[in-house]
Amino acid sequence: DMEIKTYAVPETVKIPIEVKNDGIVLKKVAGDKVGKCEIVAYSKGDYPVYSPVNGIFTDVIQGPAVNGFMDMQYAVIKTDGTDLPTSPLWETKADYSKTELIDIIKRAGIFNEWAKGYFFDFINKKTNYRKLIIDCVDDQPYDLSRTAVLLNYQNEVIKGAEILCNAFGIPKTELLVMKNFCTESLLKKGIDNIDIVKVGGKYPVSPEIVQYAHKNTALRVGVQCCRAVYRAAYFGEPQISSIVTVWGEGVQSPANLEVLNGTPTKFLLERCKAQGIIERVIGGGVMSGYVVSTE
Questions:
Q1: In this structure, are residues 39 and 292 in contact, taking their beta carbons and an 8 Å threshold?
Q2: Does the bond joining 204 to the residue before it have cis omega, within 30 degrees of 0?
Q3: Interior/surface letters 176-204, b for 16+ CB within 10 angstroms, e for the rest
Q4: Cα separation of 214 and 38, whole Å?
Q5: Span 145-179, pLDDT tens digits
Q6: How far, in whole angstroms, is CA 251 from its chain's centroid?
Q7: DSSP string, 78-107
């Protein structure tokens, strides 16, 4: 099922800030009101951390990071249940220079999902990229989050890629999909000038994509990252949500969900009607994932 269900607002969100607290600059204290898309802290000194909800800032706590390998600092916000529209956080325009777009990417807190980190950190400002690679490769069993994003938000993904190419002066765009990708007929018009490259081989195919990108001096960008670039450039929106696939033997209603940053895993399991005793939750995919807390 390629449908993406929109998020519900949980009672509390725990927004990841930083592994260490050395570079954390808090903009709120306990008891402060917080608005949706308002900056609550800076990580690494100058990376903005946005609240995805309206509510009350309650605390900064320490807990296991998503990958389970280290502790993370989290901003805790108790939500008020509202989801009001927000005004653009910065001035938007039709065309951006390379420097302007890089600044927007950083200010929007855009995450490049294939790299599991801030997109800004993976841009080499001195490189003259020859290709833009849109990574839509779902190479792990049952994970359809990238394909679902492409099929549901194709126009936003493609426009995000166009914005990047125009600003960086990249002459060619390619869309990478798995070799068994069988939904080309579902793609809408507007993709004619983009080459579809089918990636073969067994899991994991990421090393092959890394080599391919390096060989072609390419900027590799995830589909969700492309969409976030579009929304930041056109609407002045920071990235406060992402799309995940929830599935497993203990899940009655597996689904692709758009979820707010900081949404507890337990909340997602409840939405997908988890049943019985859940022995463990694996994040990041069944083949290369890690045990995560249900909280």
A1: no
A2: yes
A3: bbbeebeeeeebeeebeebeeeebeeeee
A4: 37
A5: 888 899 899 999 999 999 999 999 999 999 988 77
A6: 23
A7: EE-S-------SS---S---HHHHHHHHHH
How many secondary structure helices (H) and strands (E) does the chain include? 6, 18
Cα 263 to Cα 266: distance, rounded to the nearest angstrom: 9
Q: What is the pLDDT of residues 171-184, one digit of tens each?
A: 999 998 877 665 66
Q: d(Cα 229, Cα 76) in Å, to the nearest integer?
A: 26
Q: Which residues contact 224 (CB under 8 A, 6 or more apart)?
A: 111, 113, 145, 146, 149, 242, 243
Give the chain's length.
295
Which pair of tokens denotes residue 153?
């938000």
Question: Helix or strand or coil: residue 189?
Answer: coil
CA separation for the pair 238, 89 (Å, rounded)? 8
Q: Which amino acid, 42? A: Y
With H, G, I as helix, E, B as strand and everything else as coil, classify residue 153: coil
d(CA 243, CA 221): 15
- Is the separation of the CB atoms in 8 and 52 below 8 Å? no
The label of the residue with tokens 């994509």 reads 209
Handedness of CA 151, 287, 282, 55 (dihedral sign): negative
Instruction: Tell me the torsion sign for CA atoms 120, 121, 126, 132.
Output: negative
